[in-house]
Fold:
Amino acid sequence: MLNAEGLTKTFGGVTALDQVDFDLRPGEIHALLGENGAGKSTLINLISGTYPRSAGTLAVDGHAVEHLTPQLARTLGIAAVFQEFSLVPELNVVQNLFLGRELRQGPFLRSRAMRQEADALLNRFGFRVPLDAAVADLSRAQRQMVEIAKALRGRSRVVIFDEPTASLTDGEAEPLFAAIAQLKADGVAIIYVSHRMSEIRSISDRVTVLRGGKRIGTVETADVSDAELIEMMVGRPVDELYSSLTLSPGDERLSVRGLSTRSGRVRDVSMTARAGEVVGLAGLVGCGRSELCRAIFGLEEVAHGTIRYHGESLHAPTPHHMLRQGLCYFPADRGAEGLALNRPARENVTMAGLNLPALATGPVLKVWTERRAIAEPLEKLGLRPMAPENNAAAFSGGNQQKLMLARGLLKDFDVYLFDEPTVGIDVNAKRDVYALIKQLAEGGATVILSTSELPELTHLATRIYVMHEGRVMAELGPDGITEKSILSHYFGEVAHA
Ligand SMILES: Nc1ncnc2c1ncn2[C@@H]1O[C@H](COP(=O)(O)OP(=O)(O)OP(=O)(O)O)[C@@H](O)[C@H]1O
Ligand SMILES: [Mg+2]
Structure:
């Protein structure tokens, strides 16, 4: 259905994609696997016409395509759902679905027809989204549904998904997988990018592995083991992801008493976190973990309850105050709360309003001190390429995540609040993040780790709170932490001693 040979893309002096061959069969799910910066997004940007290629050929149904533009790609039935969302938050669902391709009769918008078509489009995949809601008011999962529906307007023969589950987890991802299964059954070919090995294993027919812009190989998924795929991806066998933590928790540093948010997503939560410990927050997406983190940092309105920190009882914390007091928060969603893409990486690392006196003087001195200050954190996280003056947009998705994480390392904080810190990053970067958490906690900091990855909780956390529908269902101590014990509280069963 689609056949590419020798696809190459250079950005300035950088070869992001180097003579890659790639083909697609009708009705197949073809996964792309590779480390951060391997060239996955670049490959699909060439196939969807987002960037012109520097060299190589592309044929659709045996017909050579010379100058592929996004419009031509659309005409050929190639649709892409991108890593970073493309919706306009202020517009409603229907407006977003038809943005730039409105249905008109003469000068008039055909509002009724657009509404009907939007409804049918969403229904086709069983997506339940209110048509009149502004996109800003939708959940992440719903925003993605709109994104998918938008890409699939018209007839699609090739659909590309770039890390569609990066900011979703199991429950939320279900409608997505159902939609993918339906597309496959309709004979649509799918390109699927993910860092989650379990997904690649369960949905893909073939896998193409990229490393350093080159194609390492294309294999039938059923014929290879995870270990073989990882070795193709990184070029050598990978060491253990986790090393054991030696923690000796000290005094209580932060506590939450009877906390409920105005949104109702956090209900009567009490928890404590001590110096030198990693406290895990477990539960399905939507269980209130993220909102709890946001409330502690002052991003959610608190209705009842208090947060005790550094001897203060806070009813309405603000990010400014919390940062000053020594609490740093890393959001899960780098797109929405994260980065200024058209500014240098350096500024993105230092811009977090961190009150660093040394960084606040005169413009020349500022750049100079900034450069020195960020060198070590970026080194620690293994930013690739190590080019802090490049705009954030020029980094791969996983490396953008590292820029956000680097912010918290500029200053010594005593509480680190991580929400899904390893979303979208490759195995090596994951290991760096785990090493960082270990180093912080062993150095006496308090780490609060909210994650949907069970192995992260069992390997890193000393205590775990499992949440369900806004409430804490169970607190598990060091002896009670297993994947099974965590899961047993996911669906709201009351804790039994
Ligand atoms: N617009 C751009 N300008 C300059 N360099 C770029 C640009 N886009 C990508 N690159 C570079 O091309 C290389 C491949 O990036 P790409 O985004 O394709 O990686 P990826 O495999 O999708 O990684 P990730 O898993 O982190 O999303 C990287 O070195 C990246 O820095
Ligand atoms: Mg990418």
Q: What stands out?
A: The first helix runs from residue 40 to 47.
